[in-house]
Design brief:
The complex is a heterotrimer of chains A (252), B (66) and C (222).
Chain A: H1 2-11, H2 13-45, H3 59-86, H4 89-121, H5 129-150, H6 154-186, H7 200-232, H8 237-248
Helix pairs in contact in A: 2-7, 3-4, 3-6, 3-7, 4-5, 4-6, 4-7, 5-6
Chain B: H1 7-12, H2 17-65
Chain C: H1 2-18, H2 20-41, H3 45-67, H4 70-77, H5 80-86, H6 91-120, H7 125-152, H8 159-167, H9 172-186, H10 192-221
Classes of the chains: A mainly alpha (252), B mainly alpha (66), C mainly alpha (222).
Chain lengths: 252, 66, 222
């Protein structure tokens, strides 16, 4: 029983807000450290790929961005499920704080995919199964953000957005499967970036970059959720106290 | 251990410079601009909320004074 | 259970018959969009035959979207929806009935008119049969998935555009398998595989979507 009580305590904005504030610098620092290490390995140490020359170095951001875009959507759907099941306030705020970062990751994945496709495939855009699915994922992010932005009542926005996320997460595998099926029927298999055997340094570089992206996403989402919390809880005592405390010093 | 012979080699990326630096450039831009936008958003939100709270407090004191 | 569903279907059909103009304009929208493509692309029969499945299906998706915003809006305005939500029988069954009624007035007419439009694109008889079958099989899924979007956007400003933003990405599997069935028939591969996947999608969405829509309606009515 005690554990459950603690869980609810952390889920309450009044406790989560200062906790997030303390955690943000750590995640930023971790992100910078992982990023520098990953860039060092990936950009300076890793050898040339025998098939793709130096152009392959785009994967050090393309793959982490794609992973994060998919992972963030799953996390948002997880928060949505918690929110709909237990009616917690925090889950809707977290989902809304994560969405813009997820959409940016999806966009970054598409952008780097295009810049990598041009020299490798000879075209900026190829209807490759994974790129196409990434594009659809971006549409799903945009749909979620448009829906939550259009609803003024925050409780309804959280719940409707959560339901959309759950519907989306059920559909993502179906969409991926259908796009893959469509892709194999219409064109032969394409050049596969990760298929070519990777040197160990490349793999480490990519993992470090993925960790960097992960920490970055957490840091930005926490920053955003703190603002959302202030906005939504503006009539509570703790926000009053928080704003009063801030007014004496510089507003952080 | 460093793979590159010179800095210009590093910039050229074996002829793929445009693509590689185009990708990393946008990545850097996003990771710098997004936190700035979030931080600025936070500042304006805090300022607006403070203004609202002060206005509410003033209205309250006026009501109690009457 | 079936009594509730059929009662809702009967009621919705009766209401739809009073607004026949809506049904007719959706069908004409479909016809006009499909007829615009040859004008934009050029009249070469080979090219048109290749494009026909995609063009017809995309136009069918868009035509289905037209009538979706009104799926719950009228009942919401006159308060019927709130009564239905409070009624003892599950709201999911009511939505199932409304989805079927929506398909009868939006999907079915498209399937009936599609073979005629297919003729404009020089499709063979086999392809026309598969096209009609695919649209018959696929449009119920469109109505089902669309109901979720209609429920989520109920009563919102700019609901129509938002609805298409939410729903069109979810329509992609139906589009792929529906157009793929016709495409496979045209190229002589046989569309059975596509059609069975399309049927699976339709059954899955008819089983799942009404309950998701019912949940969304309850959120909107709170």
């Amino acid at each position: 029983m005690k554990d459950r009580f603690n869980l609810y305590r952390f889920a309450s904005p009044a406790t989560f807000y200062p906790l997030a504030g303390k955690l943000i610098p750590w995640f930023v620092a971790l992100s910078v450290v992982f990023g520098l290490a990953g860039l060092y390995l990936g950009m300076l140490v890793a050898p040339t790929d025998f098939q793709q020359g130096e152009g392959y170095r785009i994967i050090f951001i393309h793959v982490p961005a794609s992973w994060m875009s998919m992972f963030i959507y799953l996390v948002m759907a997880g928060w949505a499920a918690i929110g709909l099941a237990f009616n917690t306030r925090l889950s809707g705020m977290m989902a809304q704080a994560l969405a813009p970062t997820g959409a940016l990751m999806a966009f970054l994945s598409l952008w780097t995919g295009a810049l990598w496709g041009k020299p490798m495939w000879g075209a900026w855009w190829v209807w490759d199964a994974r790129l196409t699915s990434e594009l659809i994922l971006l549409f799903l992010y945009i749909g979620y953000m448009a829906l939550t932005a259009a609803i003024d009542d925050q409780r309804r926005a959280d719940k409707a957005g959560g339901l959309l996320l759950l519907v989306g997460v059920v559909n993502v595998p179906i969409i991926y499967f259908s796009v893959k099926w469509w892709n194999t029927l219409h064109q032969g298999s394409s050049v596969n970036l990760t298929k070519s055997s990777m040197a160990e340094t490349m793999l480490w570089g990519m993992l470090l970059m993925a960790l960097c992206f992960w920490m970055y996403s957490i840091a930005v989402a926490l920053m955003r959720v703190r603002t959302i919390m202030l906005e939504r809880e503006r009539h509570t005592d703790w926000v009053r106290a928080e704003l009063g405390a801030n007014s004496s010093g510089a507003a952080k | 251990m460093i793979h590159w012979n010179s800095f210009s080699d590093f910039l050229a990326m074996g002829g793929y410079g445009l693509y590689v630096w185009g990708s990393f450039g946008l990545n850097a831009l996003i990771m710098i601009v997004e936190p700035i936008v979030v931080a600025r958003n936070r500042k304006t939100t805090i300022a607006r909320l403070k203004r609202q709270l002060r206005a509410e407090d003033r209205a309250e004191t006026r009501n109690t004074a009457e | 259970m079936f009594k509730i569903i059929s009662a809702v279907i009967g009621r919705d059909l009766k209401l739809a018959m009073r607004r026949q103009a809506d049904i007719v304009s959706a069908v004409f929208f479909f016809i006009i969009v499909v007829s615009l493509f040859p004008l934009g692309i050029g009249p070469e029969p080979d090219l048109l035959r290749k494009l026909a499945p995609g063009v017809l299906w995309v136009a069918a998706l868009l035509a289905t979207m037209l009538s979706l915003p009104r799926l719950f809006a009228d009942d919401h305005r006159d308060g019927t929806l709130e009564q239905l939500a409070l009624a003892p029988h599950p709201l999911g069954l009511v939505v199932t009935g409304k989805v079927i009624a929506h398909w009868l007035v939006s999907g079915l007419p498209l399937a009936l008119i599609a073979p005629v439009l297919g003729l404009q694109f020089d499709l063979s008889t086999d392809a026309l049969v598969v096209l009609t079958g695919a649209i018959l099989l696929g449009t119920p899924a469109l109505s089902g998935i669309g109901a979720i979007g209609a429920a989520l956007t109920l009563g919102l400003r700019g609901g129509g555009v938002l609805l298409s933003l939410l729903v069109l990405p979810l329509y992609i599997p139906v589009l792929i398998f529906g157009a793929g069935a016709v495409d496979a028939t045209v190229s002589g591969l046989g569309g059975e595989g596509h059609l069975s996947l399309l049927a699976a999608l339709t059954f899955a969405s008819l089983g799942f979507a009404p309950w998701a829509s019912a949940a969304a309606l309850k959120i909107a009515l709170e």
